[in-house]
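#lab-general

N.A. 3:47 PM
ok so I finally got the sequence cleaned up, no stray characters, all 200 residues accounted for. can someone with queue access submit it? mine expired

B.Y. 3:52 PM
send it over

N.A. 3:53 PM
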Amino acid sequence: MNTPTLQTPRLVLRKFTEEDLDAFYQIYRDEEVNTFLPWYPLRSLAEARAFFQERYAAVYAQPQGYAYAICRKEDNVPIGYIQVDMAEHHDFGYGLRKEFWHQGIVTEAGKAVLEQVKKDGLPYITATHDRNNPRSGGVMRNLGMRYQYSYEEQWQPKNIPVIFRLYQLNLDGDESRVYKKYWDAYPTHFVEAGLSPERR
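B.Y. 4:20 PM
back already:
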């Protein structure tokens, strides 16, 4: 099933729709929220509509996909997003309007999404965060993900060098699996002292 609706004590996780465009724009226009993300903040509702079609409508057209609006139960209005990519890396990503930060919302949403993808048979997920954004790594650890390695990438479209930390959670019990594609692809790669899985 594609993006099945999920509920948690505080949240509804559901598909974005065209009716959410104003709320969608509020999430993706904020410069602080989007500082560490691989796109520039959106500048207009027209840009938001095009971004929705490219990033979400395409996922919803696939037989399996997980691209959620994070909504509070009291009003069902999107305040963020959370998703798992169906490409090989199974990248887990999220964003939240900053007035809702520090309330455990992404962790709460993430636990529900991980439970669903595990039930649906996804073997693992990965997630990366800019080393300058350690709060994001905290969310990954709260969800049981484990640091594996770091690598430097000339990041597009912003064209800046970024050191990313890769985290992984194996959902099928194979604790030996490490997704090595970024390690192999980027010549600058290393394990940061104090973060390696053996020391956590």
